[in-house]
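## tool: complex_structure
## caller: assistant
## args:
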Amino acid sequence: VSAETLTWQRLREVRCSELEDAADGWGKASNGADGARRRVQGQMLARIEASQRGEAAQAAGARLRVLGGDFQYIYTECGLVRTTLNGLAHDLRAQQRALLGALDDARSLRFTVNDDGSVSYPEAGEGAAGTGTPAGGTAPGAADFRFLLSPEQTSPNPNAAKAQEIADRIARAVAEAAEIDARCVAALRKLTARDGLRVTTADWKDASGDATRVRALADDYLKDAIPWDKSPAERKAWWFFGLTQEQREEYLAVYPDQIGNLDGIPAEVRDRANRDNLSLLMGKLAGEDDERARTQLAGLRSIDRQLRAGSEPPMYLLGIGDEGNGRAIVSYGNPDTARNVSAYVPGLGTALDEEFAANDLKRARDTAWAAQKYDASSAAIVWLGYDAPQLPDGDSLMGNVAVMSTERAEAGALAYNRFMGGLAATNENEDVHLTAIGHSYGSRTVGAAAVEEGGIPGVNDIILVGSPGVGVDRAEDLGIGKEHVFVGAADNDPVTHLPSGGRSVEGAAVAIPVVGPFISDGVAALADPEDDDLWFGKDPASEAFGARRFEVDDGPRPFVDGEGATPAHSNYFSPVRDPVSTDNIGQIVSGHPGEIKSEEWR
Amino acid sequence: MRLCGKYLVAVAVMGALLAGCGQGAHLGAENEKRSNMDLQGAASRADGILDATVSAIEPEIKWAHGVTTAGSCDVTRRRVVMTFISEARRGSFLGVVERFWLDSNYVVKSVNSSKKFPAIYAQSADGFGISLSIGDKGQAFFEVDSPCVEGSAVAEPTTKPNGPDYRGGPIPRPNVRSDFWSAESSGQPSPSAP
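## result:
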């Protein structure tokens, strides 16, 4: 894009995908160099050292170490180029989008955008008595904020101020794109000249070591400087004001895994870091040959495909990781600019796998779409930031019963509150409206988060769907007022009918053979209206709990409708199976709880 | 007796989970699939339902394609109405659509009679859910949701919108006015459904 002057016409025509293609090429070169380095260091060098002694072997070893170091250098440099180009494409696209938005607005108002970026507008409005319709004119754009009123802003022609605003948006997009471009050019120039990394080859005493050593060296001055023990708001300040642009770029190039998951870092930055880390993580998992790695890799590949395909609302990858059952946090819509943001905690049996990538992401996207029907400024997140209980756990009944302990909910609650604290800190709206959504065991996690000291940071409303109880007996105990707690419970969802915790564990072990009889008369038991104690406390859909219950479809009945044991358990977000529930959730998330379709308590 | 029934519910869940051992399935995610249709077939059927519905509305409304979302076994098609539906006309609008759905032998499953955001939810005999909801600034949204079918790739709809195609970016709020549907008072002749 390096141009004498960047014009809005050029910005409009820039093809960001070509930059990404170039970035992919550099990424391939980087990975190729990494593979070569591994072969040199891990295989050739290790074998020589293990099997040969003497001067020739030593000389060969020294050469191979240098060669390995060179490959490391190529790997790092190419990786940095890749990161820079990806970042350029991403940043330019944002400005391009801003520009297109302004052009669209101009078109719909029938304004003309001139070659120099000024905007001409037709006559309109009413002038002082007897002066007729105020004339049209042309508003020149300005990229910097105005401290003085321009003539357009005081004009009696209502088009003038609108044209001014559009012209300014155009000018700002072009100016910011030019700045991004200049920064990128400078970064790329520096990369080609930089060979300081070779210094670290001196530290590669052990030839079987790999890149982790280089990163370990960087740990001291980069990783340890991350303010881990500070609040999300302080981390945000650190990122914006405590670092130079170069330092930020270095963090992104070397520690995308840390920055991508750091609460308090703005969503756009996390997204960029995680997209970079995603390729690294997939590469890492591809090299591990076990079931867990294969499962997670399949999930990540699906997420990667969806990211590349693009979506509306746009996807933001806010977290990714391979610890435990895997981590993935995806937002549909920018959670820093949206006025309404929801974060959904999935439950029983959720892990980073293909099923999650297909269905849980769809839930978040459908929620975002539903909320945007009622307020366009809405984003919806799926938050897999904890180890949800897994089902089934081999063939051990105890593994299944483990689902029903609160330990994982409590561990998840801490992580969820940190994440929500980050959202509250990075969102740019003064009156941001945050909704916590818990599904299934995830509702227990949300319950645990709500009763932590201070509650869930910034949260205004809580939605509990398919809940086996949330750990408190009354909605008001969740700390945000019972009128802000909403419950969706399908009458045919057995998870919302699980009997209270202490009683049935041993009963379950002996009673499995009676599943058969349940098919015939169990449905009557499901409709039992009086006993309102569930596994984790009061039934959230009960009058005693006192939340606002919204209408959901009854859903298919267990077994008898031919869809297995718990078909009604996973419909709540899905317009496919329950559009009423999805719209209700959309109305709550968008801040219109007065319009929901209510339902009687159980 | 009641307690006993509840025991059995818990047991049923756990028993089924044990039976599903090794599939790593999410709880409740495994629904019965229809073998005679895949996601593309379901999406095409959904397009047909939407085509018929929007063309049944007189006077004509302008619409654009909304996003398609597909899970592992189900798909949602959406259409967004670009004609402003005034508050005075929302009742007529929902009425025209409901009448057409009833004529098509759809069953109305639920109605939200909110003044601000009314909605109507129906289902076709072959298990497709169809809904019409009114959102912000008098914008109407149609959605058709497939039942669970065989997985497949899903192509974009082939029907051309009768106005600008906004796919790939955000869809603006209604930007088309209709003498009838956008009228602020209901003192005009009522619409007809063919």
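## assistant note: Chain B has three helices and nine strands. The first strand of chain B starts at residue 34 and ends at 38. Handing back to user.
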